[in-house]
Amino acid sequence: MTDGPADLDPDDREGDHEDDREDDHEDDHEDDHEADHEVGHEHPRESIEAGLEAERIGRRATRTTWIVRDVSLSVRPGDRVGLVGPSGSGKSVLMRALALLDKLDEGQVRWRGRVIRRRRVPRYRAEVIYVHQRAPLFDGSVLRNLELPFELKVRRSKSFDEARAVALLEQLGRGADFLDKDAHDLSGGEAQIVALARVLQLDPSVLLLDEPTASLDRDGAKLVERALAGWVAERPDRRAFVWIGHDPEQIGRVAGRTIRMESGRLSEAP
Amino acid sequence: MTYVVIPWWRVGLAAALVLLSGALSAALRLGMGRQLLIASARTAVQLVLVGMVLQWVFARGHWLAVVGVLVPMTIIAGVSAVQRSPRRFPGDLAIAVGSVWATGWIVSAFGVIAVVSPRPWYSAQYLVPITGLILGNSLTGIALGLDRMTSELVGTRAQVEALLAMGATRWEAARGPLRRAIRAGMTPTVNSMLAAGIVSLPGTLTGQLLSGIAPVEAAKYQIVIMFLIAAGTAFGTCAVVLLGFRRLFDEEHRFLHRRIYNRKTGPKPG
């Protein structure tokens, strides 16, 4: 990652002047021109309260069958959403769609009132992070894994804070010596902890958590639950999560509201 | 230039050696006899045909005849580069043919016009063998680069997507695999340059020694050829990997992993 020929980056040229007009809404017309037929010509101003909104999104499996269809959902600041449903009902596909990791076949995702296109996608994904249930680690130590996302262009104004990383790991039940461990030697549960600490230190707004305690024991799971609830409670004006889980008790503990997915469609659970 | 003309009956003597090997295989039940026979027959037929075509082209001396030989050579190189990989993706054929065509011809034109400088510059005696050597080696680099790129991307898909999910641009997410792919494509060429003249006598040098050219003159030719091959392979491999990257990652920074399919099972639907 580090020794790459950054000057070859085909996206770099586009990226550089991007920051200069971060708040320049006039430019969005040319930026997002192909996206916004539903939003209309009036470009809405960014609204933090709007959070993350999915409007009738759909993902096809084949030409005629759908994995997820007609799903509308909104995640506002302070929300702790539980997402439940049988295996294969499309929960992970929905989360990947929300993170814009897959192309939508129908509908749209809006962030703070706006559709995200092209060059803005990395910045969106810095705010709304999908955490895979078997989140992969990279070669090297735990420390290296935590530093790595700070090398991305989208985070060039931030830098890795070791003290903060240690504090986060401590919250998740690991000591400071954990930083020096080799990623290859970690258990599934430990890897999941590193993956969570890795995204928490990035200070995102929404975490899309795909079974974040699947590989952890009871105590480990409790620590993760507490850490994530505390993380939202610390900044309810900005932060939120969606949590895919299979354990109804756990969902009852972590979620403020629960939605249920079945055969690719949503139903608000009682 | 002095060299001995081999009459056809003495070519037959060499063939007798192959027949002897075939007999050995039959005696030891190696099961190689048939293959050896087919391979020998193909060698003879293919090379005689090439010899006849080139003899005609050399006799004509017209640039159109030279182009007529080089175009099919180029297309065959591109096609066979793609066919060596067990994984395919839509557009890979066009990318491989385009890459080998553009880079092979540019390097060859530079080599023949600027370095060797024959008169006329399109003289088939120089253009055909030099372009052939560049295409043949660049074919290997392109095939290895393509194969390594798809295998790396499939194998490290979780890491690539984790990087994208944390806000990486498509380039940041893919450059590790891409770099390894380019390196894999270049390795045989670099190795052959390191070993040139030590482990074996390279083909051009051998050929020129056989045709009676002074060894140091022959060495100079071989050096030029090696450099042209290295450049052709480097440019060709980089081109194919970067163009492939553009096919497999879209402008919204998504990894289109479903585009990669197994050659035997065919493209995925949808």
Gist of the model:
The complex is a heterodimer of chains A (270) and B (270). In chain A, 29% of the residues lie in helices and 21% in strands. By secondary structure, chain A is an alpha/beta fold.
Describe it for me?
- The complex is a heterodimer of chains A (270) and B (270).
- Chain A is built from nine helices and ten strands.
- With 270 residues, chain A is an alpha/beta fold.
- Chain A has a single domain, classed as Rossmann fold, CATH 3.40.50.300.
- In chain A, the strands form two sheets. Chain A has a six-stranded mixed sheet, with helices on both faces. Chain A has a four-stranded antiparallel sheet with strand order 2-1-4-5.
- Chain B is mostly helical and 270 residues long.
- Chain B is built from nine helices and two strands.
- A two-stranded antiparallel sheet of chain B has the order 1-2.
- The interface between A and B is medium-sized, with 41 and 28 residues.
